[in-house]
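Q: What does the assembled structure look like for these inputs?
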Amino acid sequence: MSEVYAARRARLREWCEAGGSEAALVSGGANVRYLVGGAPAGAALLLGPDRDVLVCASDPFADATGGSRPADDLPVLVLPTPDGDPAVAGAERAVEAGARSLAVEEHHLTVTRHRAVRSVAARARLNDLGTAVEQQRVIKDDEEISTLRIAAEIADQALGELLESILVGRTERHLALELERRLIDHGADGPAFATSVGAGPNSGRAGHVPTDRRVEEGDFLSVCLGALYRGYRSEIARTFVIGSSPADWQIELYDQVFAAQRAGREALAPGTAYRDVDRAARVVLEAAGHGERLGPRIGHGVGLENDEDPRLSPSAMGKLDACVPVTVDPGVHLPGRGGVRIDDTLVVRPEADGGPELLTITTKELLAL
Amino acid sequence: MSEVYAARRARLREWCEAGGSEAALVSGGANVRYLVGGAPAGAALLLGPDRDVLVCASDPFADATGGSRPADDLPVLVLPTPDGDPAVAGAERAVEAGARSLAVEEHHLTVTRHRAVRSVAARARLNDLGTAVEQQRVIKDDEEISTLRIAAEIADQALGELLESILVGRTERHLALELERRLIDHGADGPAFATSVGAGPNSGRAGHVPTDRRVEEGDFLSVCLGALYRGYRSEIARTFVIGSSPADWQIELYDQVFAAQRAGREALAPGTAYRDVDRAARVVLEAAGHGERLGPRIGHGVGLENDEDPRLSPSAMGKLDACVPVTVDPGVHLPGRGGVRIDDTLVVRPEADGGPELLTITTKELLAL
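A:
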């Protein structure tokens, strides 16, 4: 696996050299992980000018149990005191090694840390690395997609088990905790993000924080969860009706959100503009009179972070590529009544390969539980 | 309660004016919450130059279920699109209102966001607010301490129940999840931080991420947890022995860490230097030959964040005040064997008031479970 990380670093190094930086300092957590395979929180990666060095505040090999080991072939510098800043130490090393220019992640470093970096690297020009690593992370390799496939399967399993249990009378909080326990039972390293469960008037809200509201007959119940597996994060949301027969407004709203989500999924193809995927789903819900109730985007990339590039929104610039995993997650919430959210993780594939690959396969029929 | 937040803002505003800033922009999440009572993630608070405004990317009153409502008397500006940056919009508002100088949190804003703030506030001088709000947060009022007392009681209850259950054969992960469920059962809004459970060779490690290691006879079992209650976060750690009789090395190590933790607790008094609290605990473990195995600090402040000022470390500058809640949490981990961590949340009180107030009251005897 070391070669994968070395190749990623080589690609970034080329990008930096083309931009006029002799060295680069990567400090964003997911970015460091992408380039080295695993590192303790707060670690910084120095690329060049001679060789790459991972700078850590604690020994990355001491914690044998965590998934935080860097690739074996990478030199590691452990700071003498855990209170030190690896980014500052990395900048110091870059200058000692002769770098006259150093690209840093200005969207990640705070002004205070940037000043500390500048003060030790006064001899070098500081450039902005921008989101170069984030952009490199957008298209996933087969290994990454396989890992995401497992993360999606775990979320499907946890959700499937929940559907077989008694739901009426239980609180949103307890259902969320149970889902997280089941994720771990099925092999997840943890939840991919805070599990959201919304019942009745809370259903359908994006990012709803579970409360003590109990599930009642006639409720919509919406659930959004994901599994963290070997660093990668899946995402799925489903909405159910509690009781034997959904009300007419529930069937209508469900059908509208389902149609929008399907339209979004069907728009996923290499070459499609991000905003056109958003548009495909959004027009369906606008036509149904829900335009004002929609969130800022209809989906987003997933990988080492739950919400990463690309963003599928009206103002997003760029086009989809093959092998980009994204969510399609429209939802509508009617204040006081509740709502519907339907969300899948998919991988963009050319039509010749069968079109978008659905990773989260739990049924999207409106189940009455 | 509105008056409490207004008084906090008035104090900060005085501090800014004394430092030559006509307005201040607060963007650190816990800092905003401290000054307004509650706000959606990403909100920014503009203090002055005329009146204070809370800037949010979403309506803070729309989410009736969250604990994120700002004080009623505070003007709120909701951005037209959720993708906007409240800090940038706040800076724009400050300049429109005539501020010629604006203090921002340089340790919180990234270089990229700071640049965006600067570009809309080109007419104003940008100053550094530094950690002014963090410093203001160090001494807690009675209401804050009462809230922390409940948060500590919840953690005690969750831990107490765990001790009554069967532990052998269960994994670290499952015990951690069960503790988090019990925290919520007892009224917590969530865990204060990721619950850590370490068994056998993993016991005693600071911040250990729970694994599939099962609890075995003869193990040390160390547990670190805390409750989040109305924004405030308690912390407690205990170490137990599994089985009928601890080994001699276990008794010896436990006694050493216990003596260090007691020395640290006993050093808590108004006027004591932070570093002297660290020293009091550290010398005990250095004398026992564990100097090399100690972490960078022996305790830290708790409140709206789990790890906030003051830091009780060898290099910390400053002295304790009354009404400052801190942890005292020394631990020693012997590679391959395991270790001990003992951690309490206490409030610094003068000797006339009975000395330090212990909030986490679970016994610190070495229990064999």
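Residues 142-163 of chain B form the longest helix (22 residues).
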